[in-house]
Design goal:
Elements: E1 3-4, E2 11-12, H1 15-26, E3 31-32, E4 39-40, H2 43-54, E5 59-60, E6 67-68, H3 71-82, E7 94-95, E8 102-103, H4 106-117, E9 122-123, E10 130-131, H5 134-141, E11 150-151, E12 158-159, H6 162-173, E13 178-179, E14 186-187, H7 190-197, E15 206-207, E16 214-215, H8 218-229, E17 234-235, E18 242-243, H9 246-253
Keywords: DNA-binding, Metal-binding, Nucleus, Repeat, Transcription, Transcription regulation, Zinc, Zinc-finger
InterPro entries: Ikaros_C2H2-ZF, Znf_C2H2_sf, Znf_C2H2_type
Main location: nucleus
Length: 256
């Protein structure tokens, strides 16, 4: 079975590889080197980087002695020595005065600077996210499969289907109409009740592919994965602060 990225449509044979690839679109880099602080989107890239510190299983340039974690990186690097000065790529001479990021082209710097100033940005009409270039907005729009026309009157969150909005509203109204017959625990959504019912005597069959920790419920594993990716899905409707887990948001709301 092929797993397809909804942003760039690239396909992967394994779901774990798709998960690692999706981090490249979000810009998240949860894997950090303890030696120099450099961060990476995947654990494999961090492991390759660590070899540069330990100098084990690395590939060294015979011209300038620079080392690389992969032979393909070294091969690409040696092309620089083989080129004439006129053929070499331009240096990144245009620097952002706010964050010091550098660019080869002035137009790319100007587009980047709009992210800091907020001027001339293009905005997604569905989720209000802003972008510096139309191309980035176009790629982002692929993540929205359908228009979210049903809007929550409490927190402005939008939904594709009205039924999803009705379920969401119970978060604000505190209504929990679904009751577990075994322990009496109440839930706002029927799907949460069904997931809970399987936890009675269930084995921890859902395993995290990053750290090996196991969970009884798939949604518990999904919540745990947010700790690895740094994803913050839960938003406070009073101060807009974001949280990676729902219980952190609940605890935060008690402070308001």
């Amino acid at each position: 079975k092929k797993h397809q990225c909804e942003v760039c449509l690239k396909q992967f044979g394994q779901k774990s590889k798709l998960f690692a690839h999706q981090l490249s679109h979000s810009g998240q880099q949860p894997f950090k080197c303890l030696s120099c602080g450099k961060a990476y989107a995947s654990k494999s890239k961090l492991n390759a980087h660590m070899r540069l510190h330990t100098k084990t299983n690395v590939h060294q340039c015979k011209v300038c002695d620079k080392i690389f974690p992969y032979p393909s990186y070294l091969e690409e690097h040696t092309k620089i020595h083989n080129k004439s000065d006129s053929d070499r790529p331009q240096s990144k001479e245009f620097e952002c005065s706010t964050c010091n990021k550098r660019f080869q082209l002035l137009k790319n710097l100007k587009a980047h600077e709009r992210l800091h100033t907020g001027k001339g940005l293009v905005q997604c009409e569905i989720c209000d996210k802003k972008f510096s270039q139309n191309y980035n907005l176009k790629m982002h729009l692929r993540t929205h499969k359908m228009s979210r026309v049903h809007k929550c009157e409490y927190c402005d969150k939008r939904f594709v289907q009205k039924g999803n909005l009705v379920e969401h509203l119970r978060i604000h109204t505190k209504m929990k109409p679904f009751v577990c017959k075994l322990c009496g625990k109440r839930f706002a959504q029927s799907s949460h009740l069904k997931s809970h019912e399987t936890s009675h005597g269930a084995l921890r069959q859902h395993q995290c592919r990053l750290c090996g920790k196991r969970f009884k419920l798939a949604n518990h594993l999904k919540r745990h994965l947010n700790l690895h990716t740094g994803s913050k899905m839960y938003k406070c409707n009073q101060c807009n602060q974001m949280f990676s887990q729902s219980f952190s948001l609940t605890r935060h709301l008690k402070r308001h």
